Amino acid sequence: MNQIQPDLFQAPPALPEGFQYWPDFLSADEERGLVERFADLPFKEFEFRGYRGNRRVLSFGWQYDFNRMELQRSEDMPAFLLPLRERAGRFAGLEAAEFQHVLLTEYAAGAGIGWHKDKPMFADVVGISLGSPCVFRFRRKAGPTWERASVVVEPRSAYLLQGPSRTEWEHSIPAVDNLRYSITFRNLKPSHQPER
Ligand SMILES: O=C(O)CCC(=O)C(=O)O
Ligand SMILES: [Fe+2]
């Protein structure tokens, strides 16, 4: 007789170690205010060696130039993002000022982001979501297959990628149904602090 394998009946796999999720990180008013501000910001189409990612981005503090493969200084973080950076610091257990880089990303309906790990000069990532919900997928090589996990990331929430969720797992977001923005704060690894 076959033995019942309890593992098969368990809930979906746990999320990667080091991932944390904070629903309602923003109030609905804050979300509205930010979306209004974003409408006036000079987002640029993300383009990597002629490949268009179908999303638009804007960086402050530092910016990773995908074509030159290096960090470059960009404009200072605007004041309206500083209170969020404080909150992101508390969430991540870091001094807010350590988040020297923020990337704003606009995903029009149908846009997503493919499998990747964030660039190695960055340490932790706090991502704040506005607008459409999305599926945040993780995968990690496990022998010949992939170990997978995913979580629905709701508007106004924040997530933290730290530890294995940041260093061992790749992440991606399939095409969103409606406009979504993310605000991702990143600190730089001590070994990768560029000269000022
Ligand atoms: O939009 C997001 O929440 C994640 C974006 C992302 O993975 C990245 O910019 O590296
Ligand atoms: Fe990423």
Automatic annotation (TrEMBL):
* Domain Fe2OG dioxygenase positions: 98-189
Molecular functions (GO terms): demethylase activity; dioxygenase activity
Pfam families on file: 2OG-FeII_Oxy_2
Tell me which UniProt keywords the record has, alphabetically: Dioxygenase, Oxidoreductase
Q: GO biological process annotations for this chain's record?
A: demethylation
Supply the name of the protein.
Alpha-ketoglutarate-dependent dioxygenase AlkB
Alphabetical list of Gene3D superfamilies matching this protein: Alpha-ketoglutarate-dependent dioxygenase AlkB-like (2.60.120.590)
